Amino acid sequence: TDSDNTLLIMDHLEKIFSAAIAEAYPLYSKTPVIIAAVNNVSAKFGDYQCNNAMGLAKKMKEAGISISPRDIATEIKRCCPASPLIDKIEVAGAGFVNVFLSKQHAVSALTTMLRDGISPPNVPKKRILVDFSSPNIAKQMHVGHLRSTIIGESICRLLEFLQHDVLRINHLGDWGTQFGMLIAHLEDRFPNFINESPPIGDLQAFYKESKKRFDDDEHFKKRAYQHVVTLQAGDPKSIKAWQLICDVSRQEFQKIYNRLDVTIEERGESFYQSRMLSVVEFLRSKNLLEHDDGREIMWPNVNKTGIPLTIVKSDGGFTYDTSDMAAIRHRIEEECVNWIIYVVDSGQSTHFNSIFEAAQRCGIANPNEHRIDHVQFGVVLGEDGKKFKTRSGDTVKLSDLLDEGMKCSLKQLQDRGRDQILTPQELSDAQESVAYGCIKYADLCHNRISDYVFSFEKMLDDRGNTAVYLLYTYSRICSIARSSGEDFSNPAKILDAFNIVLDHEKEWKLAKTLLKFFDIIIKCSSGLYLHFLCEFCYEVCTAFTEFYDSCYCIEKDKTGKIVKVNHSRILLCEATAAVLRQCFKILGLKPVAKI
Ligand code: ARG
Fold this sequence. Notes:
EC 6.1.1.19, 23 helices, Isoleucyl-tRNA Synthetase, Domain 1, 4-stranded antiparallel sheet, ligase, alpha/beta, Gyrase A, domain 2, 53% helix, binds arginine, ATP binding, Probable arginine--tRNA ligase, cytoplasmic
């Protein structure tokens, strides 16, 4: 609908200019429209710019028509349909078409946001499965899984905000040959495990012990293999042992999810047992499996480029490839999703490319109906620029990392004397908000493709694009309405008596920044990049700080008595807070009013 379109400024301008180009130059009506948001301090360039005139002039010249870009720009301007969003359009320089947004439109958009809350832009709804976190039972949940957990959770929140139907799936590594040795070891160490819960809280150590025996002891190795067979055959004792081991890991994982406020449904590799059998049959029936050195493999494409998938091992067992083929088939054919998102480190990109290609080759996935993304991310580095490790060289335990975050954030709050000002409850809320917020934000604020350096010191810096800076700015905004002595909790009521006014240059700049929110959401969701949203938050906070530095919201006399409350400006503050809250929600930051 029309009102939806006006939320998406970029989209709206694209439509306007594409109509204008089609009218002015029908032969070139298919030209993709180029719109840029202008981030120039100088207002004379307008707020957005259409940059098509230069390219069109070049194309026409090639076709033997000589016309200057400036004349083309003028013609495009003349053909622009009227729009409530636009105050004026100007042609500048070599052939830029500058767009100036309408203040009146901005006022009404912000007013709606304050009255009705922030509604998401309207997009076609999809059923989406997000495969994220996905650690392995009995193995360390490491920082790579932490990245997947944080990025995956935010992607779910973003897509849920857009009102998609989102399935959050934990593709736990809970099946496979490693269970043979774990079960054999469990039998030896705790023969009575059926009746008495074994104390294997430290599964890491348990895993290491059994791995050592597996590597050193031929006899044990044989028994381990036998247990893979008994487990897969559904032998009750083996199943019981497997469940016990899974439960221990599961509880550890859940603690991390609770702390990070992550919601995810467990559907591990074991879920696909029967479906692995049937996907193998399916592939065989299509003649897609080839024998290779005792294995059965499948080439992802007819040209046999890339790496073949191992579908059946020489001992008849299945692999990671088999389970992912079974999973993708289940997701598309049984869950009926039309978008699958795998949030897994870049190291697995070859694997996923093969799976996606193979799924197409055998007819499970159809590129016209199913969007499939491998949302990859780089590794976490320590401050020394090497792979993130503890001082002793071990992998970092996630719970230790979160504990350390809690300590650092408390120390920072104490250093600022906040423990003197805040109540114990407020202090502990602030501590959690900063600790988990900064860990999440440090991960999300960079382009996920690149590696990033984990440093509490940098994360907790209160200047620059950090969670701390955003959280402090947010609480500062909240304190303004609070100190006005009036009740702004229901902005609709204030709006009955006062309007938003955008006369001051900094008010206008802040308002225009806020209205970019909807475009940013679309930009983030199309490529599944959250750093754009982080950059936006930072831009909002800087625009707010500039506004607050030059615009009084509350005027006081020498005695500190309030002499004037500028309702319009406080409404603008409240709109800023509302936009930030929505962004924080997606990024998993918990805003606190006092910090
Ligand atoms: N468990 C795997 C790992 O830790 C990640 C699983 C990702 N999801 C998938 N469908 N393969 O490396």
